[in-house]
Amino acid sequence: MRIFGRSSVSSVMNTLLKTAWLVSWIVVILVILVGVIQMFSPDLVNEYYTYVHVGVNKTLFFFTGSSPEPAASDTRLVIAPGYIRLLRMDTDFVRLSLVFTLLFWVMGMVIIQNLRRFFTTLTFQGSPFVMENVRYLKVVGYTIMASAPIRGIYEWLFGNYLMRNIRLEGAVFKSIFSLEISSVFLGLIVIVMAEILRRGIELQNEQNLTV
Amino acid sequence: MAIIVNLDVMMAKRKMSLTELSERVGITMANLSILKQSKAKAIRFTTLDALCRELNCQPGDILEYINEDRDAYYRRR
Predict the structure, then answer these.
(1) Which residues in chain A have their CB less than 8 angstroms from residue B29's CB?
(2) What's the pLDDT tens digit per position in A9-43?
(3) In terms of pTM, does the model score above 0.80?
(4) CB pairs under 8 A, 24+ apart, for A73-79?
(5) Which range of residues forms the domain containing residue A134?
(6) A1 lies in a domain?
(7) What ipTM was estimated for this complex?
(8) How many domains in chain A?
């Protein structure tokens, strides 16, 4: 199984990433179109957005008050991933969601673009020891790391919004901000791999200039 | 600080071309050219041994240490 060069694993990855790049551009254009339509026809978009998938998969709230029934203090309410149907979403929050959706999608596109360039050098230059690859991997690493606090902020904002729509007598909900440590960790790993590649390039250059 | 490679001087003394020397020593002309221009980062003892054998000289005849910047030395020469 060849890893570098044409007709190799790298070339397959290159093709897949090119496709993902094209698809991501189509999605961005669609999201922008939806945003523009929403500005002129808020009700139309409200109806659409009641079925938007919300990728919430962690604790958003914790229960701080007392309910009519005895309840354990500091009970956490877990929102499972899936579709949340909100009957009434105000226009401001729809716009905010669109902005964040676009931001996340752009970050994803930055990752796809840099990975695509990385695999292009692997395919057509046949070697990973190219200085540009270090830059591509570092951009991917930093973008992954940056997505963690942004996602935390969005979920905190979304939690605050849900709080205004959920009522439980005697209960007080509080939205919390959480940082996705796995993204930070993954980003750091990619950055370290980029530095290891840089060291490899230095060694390769020394080897090339050893007579 | 720089190590200067006086390969062209020894080649001229022995009246040997780059092509002939590369064939005798067994390294490519490209690598020999890198060595001749003092752009090499390192030289293997096997290569140095082969050069001294074919040029009938000592390592000190090929390699010279100068206490100034290599580029400044070449500009002065």
Answers:
(1) none
(2) 988 999 999 999 999 899 888 878 877 877 777 66
(3) no
(4) A77/A173, A79/A162
(5) 9-200
(6) no
(7) 0.77
(8) 1
